Amino acid sequence: QLQLQESGPGLVKPSETLSLTCSVSGDSISRSTYYWGWVRQPPGKGLEWIATFYYGGRTFYNPSLKSRLTISVDTSKNQFSLKLSYVTAADTAVYFCARVFRIGPIVAATPGYFQHWGQGTLVIVSS
Amino acid sequence: DIVMTQSPDSLAVSLGERATINCKSSQSVLFSSNSKNYLAWYQQKPGQAPKLLIYWASTRESGVPDRFSGSGSGTDFTLTISSLQAEDVAVYYCQQYYSPPFTFGPGTKVDIK
């Protein structure tokens, strides 16, 4: 059974780097036929797409965050990570990781809908 | 960017009655080569992660009750709950996956009247 679990510091200081990890069980990121991604939700607000990637393939970034974003994969731990630099209070949110349906053959695939979500982790940016 | 809007912002429906949520995209999300609408619906209950309900605008995810249905094409879409149950109280979001950035609607809150 697929499970995704976000982890990381719940409090980050302004101008520092937010680092989160998504641990995956029940599927292998490196052998999966799915994309993987991040979505965030400021308290009391709606959902904002952050990034989606396919292991060994292309990564799609939200242009509004791209300059501050780094997405990486640790296949030995079956985890993927998000780093967001120079954070401000506007980056305070619940961060979700998710498995994303792949549309089309691998050579010409695009990301689809967010099919399975982690429970989310709250990150507060404050001094 | 494709902007997603939803209406109403919130609605209250009596148990057993129909709830209808509308979603509009600023440009078509219908992909002509496969005639599929790249539109999904999610349900988010308080304190929980979103849950996929509908994809390709009208395909119900496995395990989702058949009282949930999606319709529409191009730029105008609808999520219908045919007979509202207490456990359906939630915020519902539409999302386009036609082109990045993959944008969500602002959400519609559904309550019991």
Q: Briefly, what is this?
A:
Chain A contains no helices and eleven strands. Chain A is mainly beta. Helix content of chain B is 0%, strand content 50%.
Question: What do you see in this structure?
Answer:
- The complex is a heterodimer of chains A (127) and B (113).
- Chain A has 127 residues and is an all-beta fold.
- In chain A, 0% of the residues lie in helices and 53% in strands.
- Chain A has no helices and 11 strands.
- Chain A has strands spanning 3-7, 11-12, 18-25, 35-41, 48-53, 59-61, 69-74, 79-84, 93-103, 110-117, 121-125.
- In chain A, the strands form 2 sheets. In chain A, strands 2, 4, 5, 6, 9, 10 and 11 form a 7-stranded mixed beta sheet that branches.
- In chain A, β5 (48-53) and β6 (59-61) form a beta hairpin.
- Chain A starts with a strand and ends with a strand.
- The model of chain A has no long low-confidence stretch (mean pLDDT 96).
- Chain B has 113 residues and is mostly beta strands.
- Chain B contains no helices and 12 strands.
- In chain B, the strands form 3 sheets. A 6-stranded mixed beta sheet of chain B has the order 2-12-11-6-7-8, with no helix packed on it. In chain B, strands 1-3-10-9 form a 4-stranded antiparallel beta sheet, with no helix packed on it.
- Chain B starts with a strand and ends with a strand.
- The model of chain B has no long low-confidence stretch (mean pLDDT 98).
- Chain A binds chain B through residues 39, 46-49, 52, 60-64, 96, 101, 103, 110-120, and chain B through 38, 40, 42, 48-52, 55, 61, 93, 95, 97, 100-107.
